[in-house]
Amino acid sequence: MVAKKRKVMWPRISRQQLQQAYTHIKQDSPQNAEKVRTAIIQSTKALVDFPHRYTIDKYKENNDGSFRAYELYHFRISYQVTEFEIIILRVRHTSMKPFMH
Fold it and tell me: How many CB atoms lie within 10 A of CB 75?
């Protein structure tokens, strides 16, 4: 039996958070802004093949194991794995205080 590949979904809020990060980095270095944005997008695309590759999100209360997170270039990417989707929930700089949700 072949496992069905999930689709990566970027709700509006997480797209806005990524754009805000890009805009902020771009002020100092357009090249680094592009590098970070591209790396984050590529890392989320890789979740299609290995959705459970990262650890369970320690900041998510009552986590049933479907909420996971990882860090890349000082950004924490939180996501949820469902039967058909990988939903990118949040992109935040690691210096920001975590929002308990």
Answer: 23
Name the token pair of 12: 């509006």
Asked whether residue 12 is assigned to any structural domain, the reply reads yes
Work out the angle at residue 20's Cα, subtended by the Cα atoms of residues 14 and 22, and round it to the nearest 5 degrees.
Answer: 105
Type of residue numbered 33: A
Identify any residues that bridge with 86 across adjacent strands, giving them in sequence order. 8, 81
Name residue 86's amino acid.
Answer: I
Strand partners, 85: 7
Q: Which domain holds residue 54?
A: 8-93
d(CA 69, CA 76) in angstroms, rounded, equals 7
pLDDT tens string 38-66: 999 999 999 999 999 999 999 999 999 99
Token readout for 77 is 């990417």
Give, rounded to a whole angstrom, the gap between the first and last alpha carbons of the chain: 36
pTM of the predicted model over 0.85: yes
Instruction: For residue 70, list its beta bridge partners.
Output: 77
Query: How many structural domains comprise the chain?
Result: 1
